Amino acid sequence: MKARASARSSLVPNLLLLLAIVVLLFPFVWMIMMSLKSQVQNTAAVPVWVFTPTWENYRNVIERNNFLQYTKNSMIVALAATMIGMVLGLPAAYSIARFKQRGLSLWILISRIIPYITFLLPLFLLFTRLRLVGSFTALIVSHLIITLPLIVWITIAFFEDIPTDLEEAALVDGSSRAGAFVRIILPLVTPGVVTAGILAMIFSWNQFLFSLILGGPNTKTVPVAVFNFLSYGSQDYGAIAAAAVLITLPIILLSLTVQKYIVKGLTAGGVKG
Amino acid sequence: MTSAPTHTRGQPRPGGGFSSWLDRNIRWVFPLPTLIVLFALTILPLVFNLILSTQERSVSDALPSSFVGLGNFTQAFSDPRFWNATWLMMKFTLIAVPAQMLLGLGLAVLLNRHMRAQGLVRAAVLLPMISTPVAVALIWALMMDPNLGVLNYFLQTLGLERSLWLADPALVIPALALVDVWQWTPLVALILLAGLQTMPDDPFEAARIDGASSWQAFRYITWPLLQPALFAALTIRLIDALKTFDIIEVMTQGGPGSASETLNVYAYHTGFEFLRVGYTAALLTLLLVVVAAVAIGVNLLRRRV
C-alpha cells in the first residue's frame, strides 16, 4: 500500500509522528543530560536544562565500580554464546529451510513461551551441584537459551531466500553438501548471519536474570553490576545515569551497523530478553 | 553411525566416505546438535521443574527433600500472596498490552508514508526495544522519582497534580505498565508496519473509484488484511507482558509492600531469596499454565476471526 498524501494533508500526521519520536527519545536525552550534570544540578527542585557538562559521573562509575571488568565479562559471555549459537544454529536453520523440517520450530516456540525463570531454577540446582555457579561456563551455557533459538529463527528466513540452483550446480561440480553449505550458501546469507549475530549479542548483553543468579564475583555482567550498585542505596543520580548510558552505548553502536536489516530480524524473531 | 569413514557404500563420491555419508544424512545431522542442546536446556529443565514442584526441598542438599504430591499447588491456592501476584500480573498485562496495540497501530499508520529523515525515525523507533531493560528501568525510576523526577515537573507544568508514581500502591502497576508501553509500542508498530507494506494496492484503488471514505477503506480493507499481523503482535506482547521481570524487579522489587509483586517476581523471591525450591517450582508451573493458556487462547481466536 503506497502512501499518497499531499503536502498539506500530511501536516497533522507529521506533527503526531514528531510527538511520538520526542516521547520515544526523551528518556535517552534525559539520561545523557543527567549523566553530565553535577549532583547539585540533578537534585535541583526545577530541572536544570542548560549547564556545563562534567565527566565526573563517568569517572566515578568507571573507576570506583570496576566497570571495565564487568564490561569485559559481558562481552566474553555475549561473544561466546553468539559464536556457539552460530556454529550449532546455522546448519540447523539451513536444514529447516531446505528440507522443510518443522520439528525444530516446536522447541523454538517453547523457548519463546516459557518464562526464563522456569529453566533457570533447575539449571541453578544443576550448576550448583556441578560447582559451576559463578563460572563463565554456566553463564555462556544459559545464554544459549537466548542466542540459539534467536539465531535459528532469524536465519531460516534468509536461507529460504537462496535459490536451490546455486547449490545444485555446486553438487554437480563434485562438491559435497557440507562443502556447498560452507562455500556457496553461507557467504550468500552473510547479511542474515550478521543480523542474527548482532541481535543475539544484544539480547545476551541485555540479559539480567541468568547473570543475576548464575554469575559470581568474577563473572558479574554489566546489568547485574549496575543493579547491585543501585540496590546498595545509591543516591548518586548522575552516576546511575552514567551507568545507564554506559550499558546502552555499545548496543546502540552495534545496532547502527546493521540498521538496514535489524527491523527484519526483530520482527522475524520478535524475541525479547 | 559409522565411526571409521574409510570405505564408501553406494555410489562413490569425491571427498571420501565421511563426506558421502554426511551428504546422505545431512537432513538430520545438521539440525542434530541444536536439537540436543535445546533439549538439554529447555525440555529437561522443564521436566525437572515439574518434578521439583511435587517436592518439599531447599536449595541446600544438606536438608532432605520429600515428596509432597500436589501439596505445593494446594498451598499456592490458599496463599493470598499467590492470588495477589496473579492478579497483578493480569492487571499489568491488561493495562500495557491494549495501550501498546492501539498506540502501535497509530504509529504504524504514521510510519507508512514516504518521509524525509527515515534514518532518524528508524533509530527513534528501534532504541527503546534494543535497550538493556536494567538501563531502561534505572532511567525511568529516576524520571518517576516523586520529589526530583522530571515527570512530576512536566505534570506541574501542565497544571496537573504531582504523583507518587512507584511509591503509590495504587499507581505502581500503571506506572510500570507505562514503561512497558514506551519500550514495546515500537515493536507492535514495526510488526503492523510490515503488514501494511505487504498489502496489495488493487482493493484500495477499487474502493477509491467506488467513492469509499478513508475510514471505510480502513475499516473494510486495511483492518481485515491486517489481522495476521495484529494477532502476531498481540501474541508476542501478551506472552512477554505476562513474563515481565527485569523492569519490575529493578524499579520496585515488587514493592511498595507487595503492590507490584507479579507472579514472576513472587516466584523469584520465594526461589532465590527464601530458597523454597519446591514451592517456587509449583508457582512457575502455574505461571507457565497461564502463559500457555493465553498463547493458545489467542491462537484459537485467530482461527475464529
TrEMBL record, chain A:
Q: Which UniProt keywords apply?
A: Cell membrane, Membrane, Transmembrane, Transmembrane helix, Transport
Q: Which SUPFAM superfamilies match?
A: MetI-like (SSF161098)
Which parts pass through the membrane?
Answer: 12-33, 75-94, 106-127, 133-159, 180-205, 237-256
The answer, when asked if Cell cycle is one of the entry's keywords, is no
Task: Write out the coiled-coil annotation as residue ranges.
Answer: none
Q: How does it sit in the membrane?
A: Multi-pass membrane protein
Question: What PROSITE patterns does the record point to?
Answer: ABC_TM1
Which locations, inside or outside the cell, does it occupy?
Cell membrane
Report whether Aminoacyl-tRNA synthetase shows up as a keyword of the record. Answer: no
Entries under PANTHER family matching the protein: INNER MEMBRANE ABC TRANSPORTER PERMEASE PROTEIN YCJP, MALTOSE TRANSPORT SYSTEM PERMEASE-RELATED
Q: What is this protein called?
A: ABC transporter permease
User: Which species does the entry assign this protein to?
Assistant: Deinococcus aerolatus
TrEMBL record, chain B:
Q: Which InterPro entries match?
A: ABC_transporter_permease, MetI-like, MetI-like_sf
Q: Record's Pfam families?
A: BPD_transp_1
What membrane topology term does the record carry? Multi-pass membrane protein
Query: Mainly resides where?
Result: membrane
- UniProt keyword annotations, A-Z: Cell membrane, Membrane, Transmembrane, Transmembrane helix, Transport
The cellular location(s) given in this protein's UniProt record come to: Cell membrane
Cite the CDD domains for this sequence.
TM_PBP2
- Which positions, given as ranges, span the membrane? 28-52, 88-111, 123-143, 171-196, 217-239, 277-301
ABC transmembrane type-1 domain mapped to chain residues = 86-296
| Family under the similarity heading | Belongs to the binding-protein-dependent transport system permease family.
Q: What is this protein called?
A: ABC transporter permease
Q: Which organism is it from?
A: Deinococcus aerolatus
